[in-house]
Amino acid sequence: MIDRYTRPEMGAIWDEEEKLHIWLEVELLACEALAARGEMPSDVPGKLRARAKVNAARMREIEREVAHDIIAFVTSVAETCGPEGRYLHMGLTSSDVLDTSFAVQLVRAADLLIKGAGDLADAIRNQAERHRGTPMVGRTHGIHAEPTTFGLKLAGWYSEMQRNLERLHRAREDVAYGTLSGAVGTFAHLSPEVEAFVCGRLGLQPEPVATQVVPRDRHAQYFATLAVVAGSIERFAVEIRHLQRSEVAEAQEPFGGAQKGSSAMPHKRNPILTENVTGLARLMRAYAGAALENIALWHERDISHSSVERVIAPDATIALDFMLHRMTGVVQNLVVHTDTMQRNLERWRGAVFSEAILLALVRKGVAREEAYRWVQRNGMKAMEGADFRTEVAGDPDIAKHLSAAEVTELFDLRHQLRYEDELFQRALGADNQAAPPARQERRAR
Fold this sequence. Notes:
Shape: elongated
Strand content: under 5%
CATH class of the largest domain: Mainly Alpha
CATH architecture of the largest domain: Up-down Bundle
Radius of gyration: 30 Å
CATH topology of the largest domain: Fumarase C, Chain A, domain 2
Structural class: mainly alpha
Order of helices and strands: HHHHHHEEHEHEHEHHEHHHHHHHHH
């Protein structure tokens, strides 16, 4: 199943016409504030709103001559306004329009990303609840370690997405700052009250001290946050890719009935959806790096940041929106092979309970190093095909300290996973209830 990315909202935020309309709104709001202060005729703002038109083609024509986008924009709009056009851009400098409008776009993008992150978190939570009590082997270094459950793995993902939602909200708040403070940020030709009015109407805060531009540490944090969220999605994707490997076969991303996995090998079912988001996460980290480079500008400002942001802003927000949408679909439609999880858990014939044997011997008074050697030699036999339970029960050194009944008790999966419900409550919240009896029975297999 190839998911179709059909969310035009994010792309619309970065549409050229939409950007120009935000620029126009900044200009018109500034005129309203100036008129309210008696600094231009009171009827000018109304006439400008009625007449002002965005004409991207005309703007580009002028820009080819003047080589300045804001001058070209103001000139092209003024042509549609009659004599009142002369009041446009009164006391403003280019960055007042650019940075304030950019903040509006980033906030709108953040709102969509927050929605997408919430959708992914919900999908993960649903799967976590579905697979609470589904036993599987936990792996460290890619090697079988100790038992866990698939639900716990997903509960950890859900907890991570809650942190990501908090990060996105903070990033949205920290980037929601505009400026209308003039050429070097001193309000030499404009009042701070005008800035406060315009920013307030746009849902922004005035930047405390702008140097003509909003300091780029705000934007660096924003794009770094996007990269962290992408890193989480990549972590989930890499896990699914590993679980889909032929030798593991515990879970698979969805695969459509007419989908084909390989042009040469008809049997292939490749994890292309999760591979795609893994690749995009690499781009997201690069975008964050570029935003960090933008922090240091010359003196009060230069425009070295501008060309970077024109690329990374639409690319990063659209890419992360896509990643969230794609991973939500993968999680919602994930194919989980619980029988294979059980077989893999039992593959080494009980060796995953080696720590339980080790600790039981230590509690009986055996020196840890000695107990480790006894358990390890039986674990190595299990790696070569022997039954670990049988080997432990028959080991003369271990038998001196642990009875057959005690050994059997140490292979109890229910004991290993007895805190699963508590961990679920930590991850999913106080409203989370204990697993129903059917799941408890499955857990004990």
